[in-house]
Design a protein that fits this description.
The structure holds 2 protein chains of 2 kinds. By secondary structure, chain A is mainly β. Chain A is 0% helix and 49% strand. In chain A, strands 2, 4, 5, 6, 9, 10 and 11 form a 7-stranded mixed beta sheet that branches. Chain B has strands at 3-5, 10-14, 19-21, 24-26, 33-39, 46-52, 60-61, 64-69, 74-79, 88-95, 104-106, 110-115. The chains are: A mainly beta, B mainly beta.
Chain lengths: 115, 116
């Protein structure tokens, strides 16, 4: 059973370009979470999605960031007009159900570098 | 909103010795879950141990155990017989039991080094 897949693993973008990060949850998981890790920091929650629905986007910056989890295909985190401050590691996690005790399985992360 | 605090940025332990990593949290909820995650240099997040707040018994997983003090809102991780492979960043995390608040709230982490 494959784990959570994220691609690309490394992404370099110039300021002003768009970044698209992809996350394929574990088989059978319909709950996806995105977290951002700035250098020397812990992970910060961004958004929680179920298939075709955004459940909680309280951690998402109001501008330039969007996320989706379509009925078919991976979840996408999209960052428009990237700035240097967007440079970070972005982690996706998935779970089978949404109860607190259910483990969130993390992907390997995408390291975004904005030059 | 819940907060998680890890006040020690770094710790060091001799191989085969025991080390305790501290974590405190703040919440108004009575039921919740607490976790310790390990992040080695590969950056992959690995679940080390989980504690349900309604359970009085401290969780254990092989060489890893926790000291959960609900009244004090303290959740420390004890690593016994430390091994070189334990060197990593360790994050304490909080999670509400259900619903739209099922996100993980992490502390800033602690870097553990193991001396051979």
């Amino acid at each position: 059973n494959a784990g959570v897949m994220q691609n690309p693993r490394h992404l370099v973008r110039r300021r002003g370009q768009e970044a698209r990060l992809r996350c394929s949850p574990m088989k059978g998981h319909s709950h996806v979470y995105w977290y951002r890790q700035l250098p020397e920091e812990g992970l910060k929650f961004m958004v929680y999605l179920q298939k075709e629905n955004i459940i909680d986007e309280s951690g998402m910056p109001k501008e330039r960031f969007s996320a989706e989890f379509p009925k078919e295909g991976p979840s996408i985190l999209r960052i428009q007009q990237v700035v240097r401050g967007d440079s970070a590691a972005y982690f996706c996690a998935s779970s089978l159900v949404y109860t607190g005790g259910d483990e969130q399985y993390f992907g390997p992360g995408t390291r975004l570098t904005v030059t | 909103a819940q907060t998680v605090t890890q006040s020690q940025p770094e710790m060091s332990v001799q191989e085969a010795e025991t080390v305790t990593l501290s974590c405190t949290y703040d919440t108004s909820e009575s039921d919740y879950y607490l976790f310790w995650y390990k992040q080695p240099p590969s950056r992959q997040m690995i679940l080390v141990i989980r504690q349900e707040a309604y359970k009085q018994q401290n969780a254990t997983e092989n060489r890893f155990s926790v000291n959960f003090q609900k009244a004090a809102k303290s959740f420390s991780l004890k690593i016994s017989d430390s091994q070189l492979g334990d060197a990593a960043m360790y994050f304490c995390a909080y999670r509400s039991p259900t619903g739209a608040n099922s996100k993980l709230t992490f502390g800033k982490g602690i870097t553990l080094s193991v001396r051979p």
